[in-house]
Design goal:
homodimer; 262 residues; alpha+beta; PSTPO5379-like; PSTPO5379-like fold; 6 helices; 12 strands
């Protein structure tokens, strides 16, 4: 995959002008990418509380003022209506539209939540010299609903979703310490080893993504996954919700390496 | 000061029964103590957002469901109306009463916020072998309003308040790493050295607490302080607010050492 080395501001300008509509993997030159969840103000308190109570699956990077489209904390000057390549519009929990510009759907009562994503800790694992099978093979990670409940908040409740990566047993400690530095991107693994202990029956059959290949000595390592907040929000069937389309993330101005010190 | 080695559950029972009404320093055998801020639901969203945007001065340990008095995340079975030794009742930002039992003032629309406090990172500093002048001399730390603004949220805005401790220059790195492990208790210092750089004119005249003595080679080190959220909340003159009285904290079931891994 070709790497686009430009600053996120320039990438976002191309996305805003419709020149870039692809997935954002490899874009943004090592800057933090974020999941987007936009909800009406009347359920934003419950969602904010849900994220506060479940920081591993829901690491909040930014919450906009109601009606504002600018994520001033992580990307001043950006516009969340236009600066992601692709959006999904949900009504009462059902997909109603998929668009490259969310402006026609934006409302004054909307609050935008930006949540950290696994790209940042995967970068940290790779920098630490840890091999990641799905990166080497151009696949997605494997994801499952677990038997671990999130702590509920108001209308929002549901299980923690995890992503799994096979890690060489000699690298387990390094995988923990390298990812733990980034609580804003799911942090340390929430489980290492026996999948059954967290309600996963078959490692060959993920709920989302691709099954992973294990090399001899590899151990399954499970991180809390950003699919959790979207799955939980949609399960509550909110009257209205906007999210990014899978893989089409918001690129912030925060370098991956700086997220550890935010 | 005599140390009471009993588990927080037993201490809280004595507080609830009116047997213990003193300040909580030294109580709870190394368990995390928390600041209390209780606000009506109609301004709880703004306050939750304020804490999310200002995690160093406002490290949230627990937010109750509206109307609930039980902090299920950090002390299941406890009752926030009775389990602190002393409370302050504020109306429109003015102190209206000081009580040892907040039950008569509790309402169904109240949300309780528990915020980490400096006791935990001071414990970490002492465990790391760092001398703290105010502990050795039975004094309070020194606190100031700074020129650093909090990021505002809704009706809440104001400067970051810091506490200052003189630290030997040879111990500065250790002071950073030891406290950084505990973001739930204000985390790493937000400033080291020159007080004027953060708007502090005179180290001998703190806004709150006691002036500190410097030994040769000591450097002033500034941590974000739990006075910030209370000062900010009261400045907005909320119609109603309950806080702990200074020094009369809520003692959780979380060991100090476990806060690093929450």
């Amino acid at each position: 995959m070709p790497i686009d080395p430009r600053h996120p501001r320039e990438i976002r300008r191309d996305i805003r002008n419709g020149k870039l509509t692809c997935i954002t993997a490899g874009l943004g030159a090592g800057h933090v990418q974020a999941n987007l969840a936009v909800l009406p103000r009347d359920c934003a308190y419950d969602f904010l509380l849900f994220c506060q109570r479940n920081p591993r699956p829901c690491p909040l990077l930014e919450v906009t003022d109601a009606g504002s489209t600018e994520p001033v904390g992580v990307a001043p000057g950006a516009d969340l209506r236009t600066d992601l390549p692709r959006y999904r519009i949900y009504k009462h929990g059902e997909l109603a539209d998929e668009v490259t510009d969310a402006t026609p759907y934006w409302r004054d009562d909307l609050v935008a939540f930006l949540l950290g994503c696994s790209f940042t800790f995967e970068w940290a694992l790779l920098e630490a010299g840890i091999r990641l099978w799905h990166v080497e093979h151009g696949k997605n990670v494997a994801m499952w609903r677990t038997s671990i409940p999130c702590r509920p908040a108001g209308v929002f409740h549901g299980p923690v979703v995890v992503s799994m990566r096979p890690i060489a047993s000699a690298d387990l400690s390094k995988a923990v310490t390298a990812s733990a530095r980034f609580p804003g991107a799911h942090g340390a693994p929430i489980h290492i080893g026996d999948p059954a202990a967290i309600g996963i029956r078959d490692l060959a059959r993920p709920d989302w993504g691709d099954a992973q290949e294990f090399r001899p000595g590899d151990v399954p390592v499970f991180w809390a996954c950003g699919v959790t907040p979207q799955a939980v929000a949609l399960a509550s069937k909110p009257a209205f919700m906007i999210t990014h389309s899978p893989g089409h993330m918001f690129i912030t101005d925060v370098p991956n390496s700086a997220l550890a010190a935010l």
